[in-house]
Amino acid sequence: MSFSLKQRRMFVKTNHLNSRSQEPFQLQDYLASRTAAVNRALAEFLPTATVKPGTIHRAMRYSLFAGGKRIRPALCLAAAAACGGDEADAYPLACAVECIHTYSLVHDDLPAMDNDDYRRGKLTNHKVFGEGVAVLAGDALLTQAFEIAAKCEGWPRYSHQTIILELARAAGSLQLIAGQVADLEGEGKRLSAGQLRYIHERKTSALLCCSVRLGGMSANCTPAQLKALTAFGYNVGLAFQVIDDILDVTQTSEKLGKTAGKDTKAQKATYPSIVGLEQSRKIAAQLTRRAFSSLKSFKGKAVALEALAEFLLRRDR
Ligand code: GRG
Q1: Looking at residue 47, what DSSP letter applies?
Q2: What 3-state DSSP class applies to 158?
Q3: Does ligand 1 lie within 6 Å of residue 211's CB atom?
Q4: Under CATH, to which class is 23-314 assigned?
Q5: 248 lines ligand 1 (CB under 6 A)
Q6: How far apart are CA 179 and CA 172, in angstroms?
Q7: Which stretches in the chain have pLDDT values below 70?
Q8: Which atom of ligand 1 is nearest to the CA of 241?
Q9: For atom 29 of ligand 1, which residue has the closest CA?
């Protein structure tokens, strides 16, 4: 890894999870410490707001530090820990996935897409900086992700190229973008559960799964571990979107930090609209159970991943 000692120390200024500890796992503490460490690392990786052109760096930082839950970085770090890795190695990749995620939200909120005024409890990027700068801030965050990831030299089982390909595929036209295209084209149409699954796999699950896989790769995980992490990430990712759809119809905009009820208004097919709320909750629980079962082989070392999966099923925002 071509990161300075100072950078590595900054990444790991956290109370590390001791997988052999008898203490009950405290997810809130874990999330708080990892969020703080990821924020420090992101602040270090991005050009400061005073670097010219200041507008673009302010716009990038505005959305990146607007208060996201940092679920993808947490999954990446937890996967590294589950595979016995040094968390410090996973921080750049955790930051890279958060940059891609934030870019996708900035673009998703644009008038040409979902046309939203609020995100993460604040005005959306284009509302503050204008549409042109918001498009560019999203582009710059996507590019920033690859700049950060490109500094990873790779690991014995996972070359530098493998790491970059992993990110590119998750963000590209066969996954994240494919999901968004299908989502846009599905508006106002009656979709089958299978078509909805196609959208969720790409729009949401692909990047969550990629976060978990990259965490494993940063720990030089075995092929069997990577397979288990992939199954975990895929199912958690699907459950995440089902819950997101449920929250859209059951929570307030204040709670969500974004406009609630948008799916119904945009006539989007969602699990609640196709199978109803109760059945949607059952599907999310079933997907989470499947995710759990793929962690058996980690023999208790995946405690943070388990806690995150449980938290994502029960979350209320
Ligand atoms: C290329 C023009 C262009 C646009 C790309 C890919 C894309 C736009 C949008 C898809 C993004 C999207 C809204 C996916 C859904 C995933 C989802 C539920 C995101 C919310 O994630 P949270 O709850 O958000 O983790 P926070 O704010 O907490 O990080």
Answers
A1: P
A2: strand
A3: no
A4: mainly alpha
A5: no
A6: 10
A7: 1-22
A8: 18
A9: 68
